[in-house]
Design brief:
The complex is a heterodimer of chains A (229) and B (243). Chain A has 229 residues and is mainly α. Chain A folds into 2 domains: 23-166, Methane Monooxygenase Hydroxylase, Chain G, domain 1 (Up-down Bundle); 169-228, Ribosomal Protein L9, domain 1 (3-Layer(aba) Sandwich), CATH 3.40.5.60. Chain A has 8 helices and 5 strands, in the order αααααααββββαβ. Chain A has helices at 10-21, 24-37, 46-69, 73-103, 105-110, 112-115, 120-140, 218-222, and strands at residues 173-178, 185-186, 201-202, 209-213, 226-228. In chain A, the strands form 2 sheets. Chain A has a 3-stranded antiparallel β-sheet. The relative contact order of chain A is 0.11. Chain B has 3 domains: 1-72, Ribosomal Protein L9, domain 1 (3-Layer(aba) Sandwich); 75-145, Methane Monooxygenase Hydroxylase, Chain G, domain 1 (Up-down Bundle), CATH 1.20.58.1020; 159-237, no CATH class. Helices cover 40% and strands 12% of the residues of chain B. Chain B has helices spanning 14-21, 57-65, 79-91, 103-113, 121-141, 159-180, 226-237, and strands at residues 25-30, 37-39, 42-44, 53-56, 69-72, 149-153, 218-221. In chain B, strands 4-1-5 form a 3-stranded antiparallel β-sheet. In chain B, strands 2-3 form a two-stranded antiparallel ribbon. Chain B has a two-stranded antiparallel ribbon with strand order 6-7. In chain B, strand 2 (37-39) and strand 3 (42-44) form a beta hairpin. Chain B is globular, with a radius of gyration of 22 Å. Classes of the chains: A mainly alpha (229), B alpha+beta (243). Chains A and B meet through helix 2, helix 3, helix 4, strand 1 and strand 4 of A and helix 2, strand 6 and helix 6 of B. Strand 4 (209-213) of chain A pairs antiparallel with strand 6 (149-153) of chain B, so a sheet runs across the interface. Chain A: InterPro entries: GINS_A (IPR021151), GINS_bundle-like_dom_sf (IPR036224), GINS_Sld5 (IPR008591), SLD5_C (IPR031633), Sld5_GINS_A (IPR038749). Chain A: Residues 60-130 form the GINS subunit domain. Chain A: Keywords: DNA replication, Nucleus. Chain A: Residues 168-229 form the DNA replication complex GINS protein SLD5 C-terminal domain.
Chain lengths: 229, 243
């Protein structure tokens, strides 16, 4: 965060203002929506989840105090509603990630980029899941197949790659909304320094709503320029 | 799992879309006095009788249900404004009028809980329903321009409408992309569970009416051959829109 600069440019001031006025609930909501819509697992928002958990715990204690001290039940119920909403967001976010892990666990385990996107607990979960599923498949089915076909990851020993591992479909189409201007991209995914006369070069301005393929816009999503709806 | 929607059918359930809409701010006029509320999602109040304040929609509805406030309908929900928007929708064939992103959810919640706070409630309600009908009809009737595109821009569509068309348009666009670039998409569909493969072996959804093609505001398109296009349109026809 720039602290030493004397003058902030207009863009920096805008960003700072958006940063301080966006509550954790807003950020969590955006992370939840992105995670739901994206076909692959996104980086874990560690700091955000930690902050949200602390706030929720604090609020739980406050609500318990209200209930015991016989405070105005209306206010207690309103605080409880807000607490429920925040808890739902947090839990749903974690649940969606777990669903994605369960779906693509072998793929996530193999690829380092995806593995780095998990939190430590999620990594432990993935490891246990893989072990349990592997063991289950082996005991029920694989050990009874012919020798060349006993691997969980490959169809048979002669396969060159792990073709029994489902991969996330990055070519699905998602609905995206633009928060900040994106860099110009070609729709087939390659990015070159802009030659503006080609008509398949694509750029979004803030406020646009588009349906587009996920793969070329992965980086824009990670950097926060667009968000999925 | 409580409250979670099945990703195979639709990404977000209607309740989840409403949940997101409930964070929109709306003006209320409280009829009692209350201290400020320090919620996780922000600080609101203090509440003084007859002084208008802005609160999230869920809080406004909760207070209204307990008879503690009157809700002031938002600016865009007046009869004049809605009539103007309705005429705009009827006149322009391809474009959508600018409406708040969550207008459907906001208006439904207000009609259910704050009837007496809206002047000319019946008029407003019928106008909103007409606007919804016209917009959905517009969305349904202009897909002829939908010929093998890679991205589609739709300004001014609302959250509920996006949620309704998302599965259909997603699959249609994916089919176009696949037929356009057969070498780019590996045939992973056989190994992965639940990934959709157009056209035949889709999980069944509840289909009501016959297939309609939905028009669009296309900006970018790639050329695909005419017989491929007609094949894809034929398959896309098998996926009628869900209301």
């Amino acid at each position: 965060m720039a602290s030493g600069s004397e003058e902030w440019s207009a863009a920096q001031i805008d960003d700072y203002e958006t940063l301080i006025s966006t509550t954790d609930v807003e950020l969590l909501k955006r992370a939840w929506r992105n995670e739901k819509a994206a076909p692959e697992i996104l980086p874990f928002e560690e700091a955000l989840v930690k902050r949200a958990k602390e706030q929720i715990q604090l609020m739980e204690e406050t609500v318990d105090d209200f209930a015991e001290s016989g405070h105005d039940p209306l206010i207690a119920s309103l605080y409880q509603m807000d607490l429920d909403r925040a808890q739902f967001l947090l839990r749903s976010y974690l649940r969606v990630r777990l669903q994605k892990i369960e779906k693509f666990m072998f793929y996530i385990w193999k690829s380092d980029t995806h593995r780095n996107r998990l939190s430590t607990e999620e990594e432990k979960f993935t490891e246990r899941c893989i072990r349990d599923i592997g063991k289950h498949l082996e005991e029920t089915v694989l050990s009874k197949l012919a020798d060349n076909y006993q691997s969980v990851l490959k169809q048979s020993i002669i396969s060159e790659e792990d073709d029994m591992v489902p991969e996330p479909q990055l070519d699905t189409f998602v609905v995206a909304k633009c928060q900040r201007a994106t860099r110009p991209l070609y729709l087939d995914g390659s990015r070159q320094s802009a030659s503006f006369d080609r008509d398949d070069h694509f750029q979004m301005v803030p406020g646009d709503l588009c349906i587009l393929r996920y793969r070329p816009f992965q980086e824009e999503l990670m950097s926060g320029n667009i968000s999925l709806v | 799992m409580a409250g979670q929607s099945d990703p195979h059918i639709s990404l977000l359930s209607a309740q989840e879309v409403e949940f997101m809409a409930e964070d929109e701010l709306i003006e209320i006029v409280p009829n009692m006095r209350m201290d400020s509320l320090n919620f996780i999602c922000g600080d609101f109040g203090p509440f003084l009788p007859q002084i208008a304040t802005e609160v999230p929609l869920w809080l406004a509805v909760a207070l209204k249900k307990r008879g503690k406030c009157a809700i002031r309908p938002p600016q865009w929900m007046s009869v004049e404004n809605l009539t103007r928007i309705l005429e705009g929708e009827r006149d322009s064939q391809g474009a959508f009028q600018a409406l708040p992103f969550h207008y459907v959810e906001i208006s439904t919640l207000l009609f259910d809980h704050a009837r007496d706070d809206i002047p000319d409630m019946y008029m407003v309600r019928s106008l909103v329903e007409d606007i919804r009908d016209v917009r959905v009809h517009k969305v349904e009737t202009s897909l002829e321009k939908f010929s093998g595109t890679s991205a589609v821009k739709i300004p001014n569509l609302s959250a509920m409408e996006v949620n309704i068309i998302r599965p259909f348009v997603g699959r249609a666009l994916q089919a176009f992309y696949k037929h356009d670039n057969p070498e780019k998409i590996p045939d992973v569909d056989r190994a992965s569970s639940g990934q959709t493969r157009v056209p035949n072996n889709e999980p069944r959804e509840d289909m009501s009416e016959g297939g309609k093609i939905v028009p669009w505001m296309i900006i970018y398109s790639k050329n695909i051959q005419l017989d491929q296009a007609s094949k894809v349109i034929f398959f896309a026809l098998q996926r009628p829109l869900r209301r």
